[in-house]
């Protein structure tokens, strides 16, 4: 079998989430994978190793109360950016947008860094005097 391209790996990764198929993740994650989730702010939870990343992502895939929707995927060599929406309820404000910065080596995900927009009291530059 030919090595999988970054595009193929990321497409399969996204399909595991949209299709609620945690089993599809098993052959996509490298032994030395490092994942950083979007929470808790500001740095997120760091998860290291294939087994830990697989368990973390599988739990997210299998959570029937949430939904992940990829919006855009950009691939450049061994790197990919996934822009997504994550729905965590039925209300009109029960979702968040974010990105995952992914790295693939030898057909396996070895890095996944998650970032999201968050609600809260973060002052705008104009409000904090940072606009000059």
Structure description:
- It contains 3 helices and 6 strands.
- It has 132 residues and is α+β, with helices and mostly antiparallel strands.
- The longest helix has 13 residues.
- It starts with 5 loop residues before the first helix and ends with a helix.
Helix/strand-derived category reads: alpha+beta
**N→C terminal distance:** 57 Å
- Characterize the overall form: globular
Total number of beta strands: 6
Mean pLDDT across the residues is 89
What does the largest sheet look like? 6 strands, mixed
Query: Order of strands across the biggest sheet?
Result: 2-1-6-5-4-3
Name the helix and strand elements from N-terminus to C-terminus, one letter apiece.
Answer: HEEHEEEEH
Low-confidence stretches: none
Q: What portion of the residues fall into strands of 2 or more residues?
A: 35-45%
Describe this structure in a few short sentences.
This protein has 132 residues and is of the alpha+beta class. The chain has 3 helices and 6 strands. The mean pLDDT is 89.
Record the SSE blueprint.
Blueprint: H1 6-18, E1 29-36, E2 46-48, H2 50-62, E3 67-76, E4 79-87, E5 95-105, E6 108-116, H3 125-128
Parallel strand pairs: 1-6
Antiparallel strand pairs: 1-2, 3-4, 4-5, 5-6
């Amino acid at each position: 079998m030919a090595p999988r391209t970054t595009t193929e790996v990321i497409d399969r990764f996204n399909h595991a989430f949209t299709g609620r198929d945690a089993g599809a993740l098993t052959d996509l994650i490298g032994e030395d994978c490092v994942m950083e989730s979007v929470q808790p702010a500001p740095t997120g939870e760091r998860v290291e190793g294939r087994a830990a990343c697989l368990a973390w992502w599988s739990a997210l895939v299998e959570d029937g109360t949430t939904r992940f929707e990829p919006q855009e995927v950009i691939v450049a060599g061994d790197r990919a950016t996934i822009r997504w929406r994550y729905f965590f309820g039925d209300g009109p404000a029960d979702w968040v947008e974010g990105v995952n910065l992914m790295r693939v080596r030898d057909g396996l995900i070895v890095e996944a860094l998650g970032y999201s927009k968050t609600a809260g009291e973060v002052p705008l530059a104009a409000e904090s005097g940072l606009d000059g």
